[in-house]
Amino acid sequence: MIKQGVSLKTYNSFGVAAEAALFAVAKTIEDLQFILKDQRFASAWILGGGSNTLFCETPKTPIIQLAISGIEITEEQGDEVVIKAGAGVNWHELVLWSLEKGFGGLENLALIPGNVGAAPIQNIGAYGVELQDVFESCTLVNRNDQSVETYDKVACQFGYRDSIFKRELKHKAVITDVCLRLKKENYRLNTSYGAIAQLFTSKGISTPSPKEIADVVIDIRTTKLPDPKQLGNAGSFFKNPIVDHDQFEQLKSSFPDIPHYAQSNQNYKIPAAWLIEQVGLKGTRKGDVGTHKHHALVLVNFGNASGDDIKVFSQMVQQAVEERFDIRLQPEVNFCC
Ligand code: EPU
Hints:
337 residues; alpha+beta; four-stranded mixed β-sheet; 20 strands; 3 domains; Uridine Diphospho-n-acetylenolpyruvylglucosamine Reductase, domain 2; binds uridine-diphosphate-2(N-acetylglucosaminyl) butyric acid; five-stranded antiparallel β-sheet; Uridine Diphospho-n-acetylenolpyruvylglucosamine Reductase, domain 3; 26% strand
């Protein structure tokens, strides 16, 4: 279960070379409790699918890979069903499983890279839906005393790409499974997102099924976003920044065409991809790192870039955007060193 000198190249979707001095795999909650009791793993990095982690070449921190598998139905009532999935289940496999069963709720979240255990941490979201819309609860193991707790939706304090696991519980708890409340019928479908709505209108479909929505999402994602198996990347590298009303008004007077999404509290979300494109950095390359030609927010490893190369490139992007727009982009990707 515990190994030394393990290559992390295949454990991260950037495909960067890195080596963990200490590496442990947890296939069950009991495995995890056993590993956490080992003081060497007290501050270990918890690794899921490696789709949101950027490793430096020799991370000092030990790594625990969560490989808890299994999907089951835990509750069925009326038109609703609750499913439970292990933290190590691949997210997209779970989406496909739910669609095969005819369950609705996860269709907009198809093809998001990563594993189930990471989904609540950043409240994954795409095409108008976020995890919190279907979230029921998750099980946590406390890293200090290895006790097991359940957190419901309120306790998780979800926000845009945010939750309690990025704040008060950062490095304090490990998510071991996630329960989601889905619909068996009377689906609550969300087709409001521009590109999805356009595709259904052009196909003449007015009441799509969850599967049809997932197919469209898969189409859009495969067209716009590079497949990490072919070109190392971690999806969006930065979060979309949120600015307050005054800053937005200032930006709009200088950049009248600035795309924006009004938030509930008078703030505005600005697409980071647009900001990066405006500073001329879409589809640029420096050595083996660059931004993708179809999506400026996706940083890619063209071959042999190191984690540090990608980090330096990302700082150059941050600086260029900050100089032009006075907005500091915050990484969505986590750095493990
Ligand atoms: N845009 C550009 N240049 C580009 C790409 C996009 O100017 O190269 C502008 C366009 O105005 C476009 C807007 O950015 O309308 C938004 O682009 P997109 O619809 O691709 O969404 P995004 O805001 O860049 C977010 C998520 C994605 C998710 C999509 C779809 C974040 C940080 N990213 O991206 O999530 O798939 O919406 O809902 O919120 C991920 O987190 O890894 C991820 C891929």
